What we know:
Elements: H1 21-24, H2 37-44, H3 54-57, H4 65-73, H5 77-86, H6 91-97, H7 109-112, H8 120-134, E1 149-153, H9 157-168, E2 172-177, H10 185-188, H11 197-209, E3 213-216, H12 226-232, E4 235-238, E5 244-245, E6 258-260, H13 261-272, E7 288-292, H14 296-307, E8 312-316, H15 328-336, E9 340-342, E10 345-353, E11 356-370, E12 376-380, E13 386-389, E14 392-395, E15 399-400, H16 404-407, E16 435-437, H17 440-443, H18 448-477
Parallel strand pairs: 1-2, 1-4, 2-3, 4-16, 6-14, 7-8, 7-14, 8-9
Antiparallel strand pairs: 5-15, 10-11, 11-12, 11-13
Helix pairs in contact: 2-4, 2-8, 4-5, 5-8, 6-8, 9-18, 13-14, 14-15
Amino acid sequence: MAEKMLKFTTTPRATPEKRPAMARSHDFHEIYKDFIDAKAAEQASRCSQCGVPFCQTHCPLHNNIPDWLRMTAEGRLEEAYALSQATNSMPEICGRICPQDRLCEGNCVIEQSGHGTVTIGAVERYLTDKAWEMGWVKPLVPGADRGQSVGIVGAGPAGLAAAERLREMGYAVTVYDRHDRAGGLLIYGIPGFKLEKDVVERRTARLAKGGIEFRLGFEVGRDATLAELRERHDGVLLATGVYAARDLTVPGAGSEGVVPALEYLIASNREQLGDGAVEPRLNAAGKHVVVVGGGDTAMDCVRTAIRQDAASVTCLYRRDRANMPGSAREVGHAEEEGVVFEWLAAPKAITGEALQAAGVRAARMRLGPPDASGRQSPEEIEGADFELQAEMVIKALGFDPEDLPATLKADGLSVTRWGTLKTDLRSMMTSIPGVFAAGDVVRGASLVVWAIRDGRDAAEAMHRYLTAHAGAALMAAE
């Protein structure tokens, strides 16, 4: 029976049941249980079906959220799934890892009226998991063969989203990646308690079955230059992401025990994938751990350290809770699991010896006048230093692009002053004809949902270019 909508005044907001902190903090399984059908329909029925859907406009993919919420409430689940996946290459992944509190849910009209947002992310995850269970996720069907091929460098969300769209258009697609599994940070960067790896693997398996070729363990610049890839394919897309960790610039930052966040997370994820135990240097077991940073990567690190049975885990962030860039929901999960947050605190030195860190000397901070971006600048409070014990210090300060012209052996590849690839805003083409770029390597470190959006847009841009190129070649032949 169809549910009526606009139930937000009588039905309270509810998320899927969360596993108790003591139980979940000892494993890497996802922390939320699944919605049951009735609960998903009930929560979807809270949608106000407002005339201007701010949830949709604040979603980078502009997902048609009100309509698939209505269909879910009415029990039209297969139709709801079909509509959700029409604009999103990986809805079950976005439902799990998007910071909905900053995007769709954070702009929900009923949230602004004090009734609590619709649980959009949980319903999105429910719909797609149900679709996989019921067989509604159709195989990838290639379009009519165009006789043209595309090479994509990077098997992360931007590259995979572009590969899917281009294959649907009839292009032969080869995806190159230096890792031994497809998925990029979805596999190696994001821990299993946020995104279990079989969720990603079934997506990449669908692409492979649809005829997309994956060349894994293949490093462009080592196994082939960009120029050689350009000769193999009619078009090339660079979707490599940004992997160069920003460094700690304090005395003692080179000590043993100071590790980059991504190296730490990759080691943990590899262990969970069955690739062998984490080496002691990257294992937090029994150690006092300090994580420096306030973004989602920092939250991934602190919660991973808890699961590795660290003696204590502390997060240092130089601004206050209200100004941290990471998801507020993730901070709440971390606090429940035993992480201590030191707000308005910044490292001044790593103490101990070069062969082993022993602690962190930190400064208390206050927020001063806004900087050029409008954010208040943190200022040190003189004489308010404090000490933390730490045998492991994880630097989670963000990521910058690698030196791609050098890495790819492509001197003609132009970059911005931030090191990201310079592209034409409309064509998404780089300074090298026929070579396009998308995702974090253009945008800078950002969200998975933006990478998916950029990958889909890049596929459309490449299609326009390749269609025109093929037409010009045909005319020349005549």
